[in-house]
Design a protein that fits this description.
The protein is mainly α and 185 residues long. The chain has 2 domains: 2-75, no CATH class; 100-184, no CATH class. Helix content is 45%, strand content 4%. Helix 1 (2-10) crosses helix 2.
Length: 185
């Protein structure tokens, strides 16, 4: 029966499909002689393959085949209601060098409160929040085409991660004053 299914998938639509199957069961060499005479063009796409499978099979065989098949076509892999995550993708990005000493001097001067909303992680979370805050560059590093001398007091500000994300919601980033004004509305 395996040979019959393979032949069924590769044969052109025939009106006497049952006869074709019986012929293949008794004399498998029919397939090679058929193949020499009726060699099909290679499929152009997955849809072309599916279309050929559907046209080459009878309705009753399609029902049986689909009920028994254990594989899925790539576009049937996930149902519309299934949400998946965790696939690995390689991403290439530019990483800009940060100076940990500049960060320390910024935090020494401004403290650990967010410059936009005033949030303090240590106050909110206790010991696990101690020393946690992002540092925002007022001049975006991506606009600097080479190394530059950073002034921790003039160029950097401590901001919480939420405000930091909101500062970068547009290009060029919002200013700290603009975002503070949005929050206070």
């Amino acid at each position: 029966m395996k040979h019959a299914k393979i032949a069924y998938r590769t044969t052109p639509p025939l009106t006497s499909q049952g006869v074709w199957l019986r012929c293949l069961r008794c004399c498998p060499s029919t397939l090679s002689s058929w193949h020499q005479r009726w060699r099909p063009e290679p499929p152009n796409s997955l849809q072309d393959v599916k279309s050929r499978l559907d046209t080459a099979t009878s309705a009753s065989w399609k029902v049986t085949y689909r009920a028994k098949r254990t594989f899925l076509y790539p576009d049937e892999e996930e149902s519309q209601n299934t949400l998946t995550e965790g696939a690995v993708h390689k991403v290439t990005v530019n990483a800009y060098e940060r100076n940990p000493e500049a960060r320390s001097k910024c935090l020494e001067h401004y403290g650990f409160n967010c410059s936009v909303c005033g949030f303090n992680f240590e106050r909110a979370f206790g010991e696990i929040g101690q020393g946690f805050i992002h540092v925002h560059h007022l001049k975006p590093l991506s606009t600097m085409k080479k190394r530059y001398r950073v002034d921790p007091i003039k160029d950097l500000r401590p901001v919480c991660p939420n405000c930091h994300a909101m500062l970068h919601k547009k290009t060029p980033p919002f200013s700290i004053d603009d975002l503070s004004a949005i929050i206070s509305q």
